[in-house]
Specification:
Layout: H1 2-28, H2 36-74, E1 88-90, E2 123-124, H3 131-139, E3 143-147, H4 153-162, E4 172-176, E5 186-190, E6 193-195, H5 202-212, H6 222-225
Parallel strand pairs: 2-4, 3-4
Antiparallel strand pairs: 1-6, 3-5, 5-6
Length: 231
């Protein structure tokens, strides 16, 4: 539905631009060599075409707004409130300090500890970013989904879709790691919390995201983070 609104908006916008161009060409025909009646007719015709152009422009704006609203509803965090039963591990808090040096983490998928002073943009990553930056993201309340590179296509689509969900100043990142157990396909973490699945389960992953997003020890306003990668 969102794509339909966008396509319709583009078509109507192009029609409005065409109308303005046509109005301009008609206006140029209105020269001093024409009779008064002819000039009045061309002037009136130009005004009518311009009004149509204005109307089409307004319709295109409304269609684009409808697309934005539809997209916002589609990725509302409330859509992940599956209330699935999940077993979440409460991990030890290894600290929140910042460092530019490499960190030797005690966990394969660390959920706290010293980390980079820089974080990353939310979204889907095809190459694993620096772990120290990922830990910083969790400090800001972001959720990490570690996925196997051999994940079935349908499950990979679900992971990519989940990275589009946000809440206030926090989001979701998906990064590759073949250290993830094959039977689960993914490993999900938040600050000091781990969801280790026995099998891939979209509702359990969604529930974990819903319950833990934007709950890190350092909450940054959304107007400051703007999708992450700002700190």
């Amino acid at each position: 539905m969102t794509l339909t609104y966008v396509i319709a908006g583009v078509v109507v916008l192009l029609a409005s631009i065409g109308g303005y161009i046509y109005a301009s060409s008609v206006s140029k025909q209105n020269t001093s060599r024409l009779k008064k009646e002819q000039k009045a007719q061309l002037h009136q015709k130009t005004k009518v075409i311009q009004r149509i152009g204005h109307a089409l422009l307004a319709v295109s704006i409304l269609l684009f707004l409808a697309a934005l609203m539809q997209n916002a509803r589609k990725y509302s965090i409330e859509n992940l409130n599956y209330k699935a039963a999940i077993e979440v591990t409460q991990d030890r808090n290894y600290g929140e300090g910042h460092t530019d040096s490499p960190v030797n983490y005690e966990m394969k998928f660390p959920t706290s500890g010293q980390h980079s002073p820089h974080d990353l943009k939310y979204g889907f990553y095809e190459e694993k970013p620096q772990t120290e930056k990922l830990v910083h993201n969790m400090e800001h309340g972001d959720i990490l989904i570690y996925y196997r590179t051999d994940l079935p296509e349908e499950q990979l689509k679900i992971v990519k879709r989940l990275t589009k969900f946000e809440k206030a100043g926090s989001g979701v990142l998906a990064v590759p790691s073949n250290d993830v157990p094959a039977e689960a396909g993914v490993w999900v973490t938040a600050w000091t919390k781990t969801l280790q699945l026995k099998a891939f389960d979209e509702k359990q992953i969604g529930t974990f995201i819903y319950e833990n997003i934007n709950r890190g020890p350092e909450v940054i306003p959304p107007e400051t983070r703007r999708g992450g990668g700002t700190m």
